[in-house]
Amino acid sequence: MTAAPTTPTTLGPDSDLSRVFELAQQLRVDSVRASTAAGSGHPTSSLSAADLMAVLMARHLRYDWATPDNPDGDHLVFSKGHASPLLYAMFKAAGAIGDDELMTTYRRFGHRLQGHPTPELPWVDVATGSLGQGIGYAVGIALAIRDLERRASRVWVLCGDSETAEGSVWEALDKAGHHRLANLTVLLDVNRLGQSGPTELEWDTDAYARRVEAFGCRAIEVDGHDLEAVDLALTEAADGRAPTVVVARTVKGRGVAEVADKAGWHGKALPEDLAARAVAELGGVRDLRVRGPRPPGHPGPAHPDGRRAGPVEPPRYEVGDEVATRVAFGAALAALGARPEVVALDAEVGNSTHAEEFAKAHPERYFQTYIAEQQMIADAVGMAVRGFRPYATTFAAFLTRAHDFVRMAAVSRITMALCGTHCGVEIGADGPSQMGVEDLAMMRAVLGSTVLYPSDATSAAALTTTMADLDGISYLRTTRGAYPVLYDGDETFPVGGSKTLRESADDRVTLVGAGVTLHECLAAAEELADEGVRARVVDLYSVKPVDVDTLARAARETGALVVVEDHHPEGGLGEAVLSALAVAGAHPAFAHLAVTELPGSGTTGELLDACGISRTQVAGAARALVAR
Amino acid sequence: MTAAPTTPTTLGPDSDLSRVFELAQQLRVDSVRASTAAGSGHPTSSLSAADLMAVLMARHLRYDWATPDNPDGDHLVFSKGHASPLLYAMFKAAGAIGDDELMTTYRRFGHRLQGHPTPELPWVDVATGSLGQGIGYAVGIALAIRDLERRASRVWVLCGDSETAEGSVWEALDKAGHHRLANLTVLLDVNRLGQSGPTELEWDTDAYARRVEAFGCRAIEVDGHDLEAVDLALTEAADGRAPTVVVARTVKGRGVAEVADKAGWHGKALPEDLAARAVAELGGVRDLRVRGPRPPGHPGPAHPDGRRAGPVEPPRYEVGDEVATRVAFGAALAALGARPEVVALDAEVGNSTHAEEFAKAHPERYFQTYIAEQQMIADAVGMAVRGFRPYATTFAAFLTRAHDFVRMAAVSRITMALCGTHCGVEIGADGPSQMGVEDLAMMRAVLGSTVLYPSDATSAAALTTTMADLDGISYLRTTRGAYPVLYDGDETFPVGGSKTLRESADDRVTLVGAGVTLHECLAAAEELADEGVRARVVDLYSVKPVDVDTLARAARETGALVVVEDHHPEGGLGEAVLSALAVAGAHPAFAHLAVTELPGSGTTGELLDACGISRTQVAGAARALVAR
């Protein structure tokens, strides 16, 4: 089953459909060969979509395989990432990879042809494999291309039928319809069979079409194995009139009689003997090369040029004034708009998060996703793919809604800034549904993330500005209420640093807080000072990475640490400090105050007290450590 | 604005609509009064839905306010939980609470009339306030009532228009249509205005209706302030033919001219003077009492009777046999089916998670939610509301999709068991999109959760069984691959315990692992023993609560701990151990091995090694600690 060492024949946009059929068969053969060689993978899910992809790559996808970062190239998002054999077979057909790489490295350690595609491959923009995300990303990419860059390139998505059970697919299509993204086409591969049985709608392509149309997109129903019909549908889809979903009725395992439309073959490589029969049935190994349509030329500047211009003038605050960190975030974000690569995304709470300040200053780079947090993150990912610097903001509690999208963005090595406002029980009367008390755990556990939690307006503004130059996913946690400004505008707040706000040679305990609890620590230190107990106070504004040296020194010099956080005890500030102390080999006496019971409504003071994280309890914990 | 101390007039199901109008005005007046008295809240969002709720409670909701746990009573889910003034005004109209409680405790500390409703109130089944969740819960409740209990009661949902931007709404309606849940009615309050501006679809009720119909439900469009039309719509909705969404065009702030259909009034209590004018405009304070329809009688046994029957015979395994913990989970779950309150939910991966074993044994209590993890959790919550014991299972990585639903389930104090399979880089070739490496952080941070992570089939089966008697949300983390059975079938695994698998008086280091890393620890201990270094090995199967005493003793007796986990370093096993040591005041030398880089595809061995969590690296870390 190795490829014949012949000179490849090239197939261009004008080749007739019989040649495209040969390409489709080659994609099938290579999907079977690669997965059988790997011993795992999803050949049958690849076979159903091979005709769709053959027509797309030969005649419609305007893409420069040698220069994948050509800013005028189309995008192809493989939402059904498990069909990676098909995608990699396309790479081979495009001449982007060789048969050897396909046959010897797929799904193997240390190689880039992974089980599900990731941007480690230059032709892949976003990692997929958690289903139902691809259309969302594509919407973000298409928005950036059309509304931010004003280019003519298109975004194509291959989506499975099973994944339409994910609500996120409908969040995405709703936005495609809302924005009338005529540069977006989804190829929906309705192969009827899911992982463990038939899909909910099986081959009811009318039902899919009705849903698509109801969500404001155009649906075109086709037989996904009728190359002419597919070609016409893709031509129509690209007519610039509407976002389109080509609802393609297909057969899972198409082309291999022993597995076609049969249950029990999801996610299984064909055994060697069956693979050999399949390759024969499909006409044997081919070596066609595709040279599809080229990207349209673009009159404007190349992709990332012209960015990072403009002076950023962050807001300044007077020490002692009471300003909410969310307010400072909004003001700093608006100021950051001077950098043309910065975009802001809102989930219909911009007047609470203060992200709307950006909207007032830079309406053309402000995107309202309504109450659809998953799509907000998907938009951010798509815009980051196009080189923009997204800031996506909602209540800290509601970022949990998009956890899987944030997780996958980390796999895609996306750079974006998230801000979660209204953290903790501090918010008061609205009650527990609105209180983010698990966001630090969620965001710290994101691979490569930076987690920042300012206590005053000056640091909030500075850190908001800093985030525009960080790599990876950064998270800013902000507070609802207004608290005194602690720092002068010239203070700097390096990532991985901290601020020691009270310090003396006689300190007998260190109080560590961030956000509202830092203010409680300061008040507790006053109270302790009145009793003759000197307490050091550390503002741990950088939760990840954390300031190991300062914490270790505090542990050594004061012998005791109280960490207090407006968050559940697991995965937040306290455990970040414990990990830092473990790294440093420091062993202070330790107390950890956090939210351990379900809060209700109340005032901030009542709730901090009821949850055991108020100044009184900080002072009490400090006294107990000092008296030990 | 206090209520007049008159004797209330009672309004029954046969009262004419002019009386129902008076009730609606009373609900409006009380919504305004309560939120103004509290100084915060959402009066305008309450005013739009007052007519809908008046008709519902007077004529359609079959509910015994004095006996809210009557199993034959209907359910009302307030998906737009911010309209709590309206809900609480209904409670007052029903005689469930007094005017004094409404006027003096709403949104105040220590009281049950919180900013958003929670089940602390006996008439509330599920906490709401994170939008887009109510229909999902209602689907779960309706399924339990119809398919598990075979009762005639109905489920009604008040849903806002803004929240339909959440994909979860469409996951839920898809399932309502799929299951043909004719006992479910959604009242969609299309008031056109969101928090910060007009909604995406504004008053395009046709668009809503098309979406609803496309998702397999019946849509009835009405003027939401035309009481007769609403009454007819609710009568039709209850005809037993189809799940129904009453798409009601309404006016936000209806009845108060100064705020009606005006932007800028979302989530704002009316100032005292405006509130006084509003109450006057609405006809003043009333004291109508509603005695609506009664629950239908049910011939069968009362709600929770007849449960907990049947002997459970968990599977047994031979020590040394290689069995995956996910396999043991599936077998134990199937055995647990002997308890009729146990139900299982799958997100179309039952053949991978082995939840399908339950389907084979108890198909009538197995629910396929397809690839819709949010709805899977919503179904589980709804079934738990009806007294069932749900086990919901998917890949650990994909539980992140439902994080907000899990968070809210904790606010609702729901008891349910979750199982996440395919955890960690251990899974191998499928790559990072399928690897759950943040699930421990997510699940540990859930309020009141129990987190279990078995290393062998015996403990996996035992813990699966144990979960059926735990309160709150419990989580079982299982592994893809097969590893040797370590424990005899008679061993017990109490929550909060651990197992010390190797121990001697000469131990110089303790190796702590769970799941695949425990097997690496055992191998490392062998390697160290060959070098003359005795290592203790602890199986930390209970991650939350964690076995503080055993860890403290190990720290004291061996002086050094290596914790190794197939998870990111934040919020997982390592930080759980650090927190335990901090509680105990134990200060061993400490090394923490965890996944800190993005993994790719590979074999289990290659990936454990590449991520620094293999036996070789465990032994190396132990050596370094011993040599310190």
Automatic annotation (TrEMBL), chains A, B:
InterPro entries: THDP-binding, Transketo_C/PFOR_II, Transketolase-like, Transketolase-like_Pyr-bd, Transketolase_BS, Transketolase_C, Transketolase_N
Composition skew (Pro residues), residue ranges: 293-302
EC annotation from Swiss-Prot or TrEMBL: 2.2.1.1
Cofactor dependency: Mg(2+); Mn(2+); thiamine diphosphate; Ca(2+)
Transketolase-like pyrimidine-binding domain residues: 323-485
Assembly, per entry: Homodimer.
This protein's name: Transketolase
Species in which this protein is naturally found: Streptomyces litmocidini
